[in-house]
């Protein structure tokens, strides 16, 4: 029997990680379908169930709640055991969290194509499912913090700081943003209206990014990057500064989505200023992770999993530079509602979150199943270059399309009339939408290679790893 099985509860972790892998492919495949529909609208097939407006929230929910939440739940429950040198607080509770969360995802898969939606971004699910989400999340919080409480070491490792923050903040803002009055079994109306609704929505919307896709992923990486690099965190003190910088400033930045809106100017300004301040802790954390990898330069030269992590860090730098830039009014005037925003979001989602998740899959899954190494290092290399090609094509195409689109919308004739029609702007960006589709398809093809490689890794009789003996 493996030592990890005796000392820690790993079976539920395996289930979470496999669920995350399945949802990553499903969610991103739907994204490729949506990209195809934007270039070939006939691919809607005149069906109300697979048209863009219904599949888009299924794509975002599949990636955020399916891929990201599953991988964060799985890795957090593993890391909190390892760093606390204790088993989970309650094993039965862990299975309730797993199956409860999969039920949430199945209900999303059914209801969103049927048109049941609140229409609030990243919060589209209707009130009965929201209640289930809150119940499961509270059980997850009890499980995580209960395990921390029974730890056998005094110290709380910094990864658990980030996990704890994302669990608490997501719970608070999700509940507040989804306060609603039910009108029927699958229809409700928000208790907020107008500018108040917009402020609360983007307090949630931006912090879903800030704490699920940033703080949670950082917590995961602060454990796995030192493990992979076989070196300690470069600066533990810097990791704490990173934590408090994000927690202190990120929750204020959401109103940069509402620049040039009816929201009070001072509220907009808070979002802009806090976005700019976030540069400092974000890049400090990126520097810390990069230097941790660079401590083992010999391994970094040949280890493609380390390259995935390093790529994720570089995309994190890019996204946390570009985000505050887009919050500045002059840039926002050009970029808002254009493809540039979509390019920014996906360079972060695919580059930072995607590359981090991929690196964890490659490093973690063989060890969870007691294998030493991957079935095919060659497929790993193919995946690395396919993923990079996909992200580069995707981001560059939408930067070009978005900047051109923004300028065309603003251009005026001498008499003050618009220089370009909306259709002319659409014609300009159409070729770039095809490039975006092709880039996304390359990225998903890489995920399929990864899934095949990892399947063979855990099923073929490879050498057992030292960790699992």
Kindly describe this structure:
The termini are close together. It is globular and about 75 Å long. Helix content is 74%, strand content 2%. By secondary structure, it is mostly helical. The chain is built from 16 helices and 2 strands. The protein has a two-stranded antiparallel ribbon with strand order 1-2. The longest helix is centred in the last third of the chain and has 38 residues, at 422-459. The protein has one domain (3-468): Cytochrome C Oxidase, Chain A. Residues 15-469 form the Cytochrome oxidase subunit I profile domain. It is a multi-pass membrane protein. Pfam families: COX1 (PF00115).
Largest sheet: 2 strands, antiparallel
Highest-level CATH class:
Mainly Alpha
- Reported CATH architecture: Up-down Bundle
Q: Which residues sit in consecutive blocks of at least 5 with pLDDT less than 50?
A: 1-5, 465-469
Number of strands: 2
Total domain modules:
1
Mean pLDDT: 95
What count of helical segments does DSSP give? 16
CATH fold naming: Cytochrome C Oxidase, Chain A
Q: What is the distance, rounded to the nearest whole angstrom, between the alpha carbons of the first and last residues?
A: 8 Å
Oligomer: single chain
Helicity, as a percent range: over 70%
Radius of gyration: 22 Å
- Report the portion of residues in β strands: under 5%
CATH homologous superfamily assignment:
Cytochrome c oxidase-like, subunit I domain
Structural class: mainly alpha
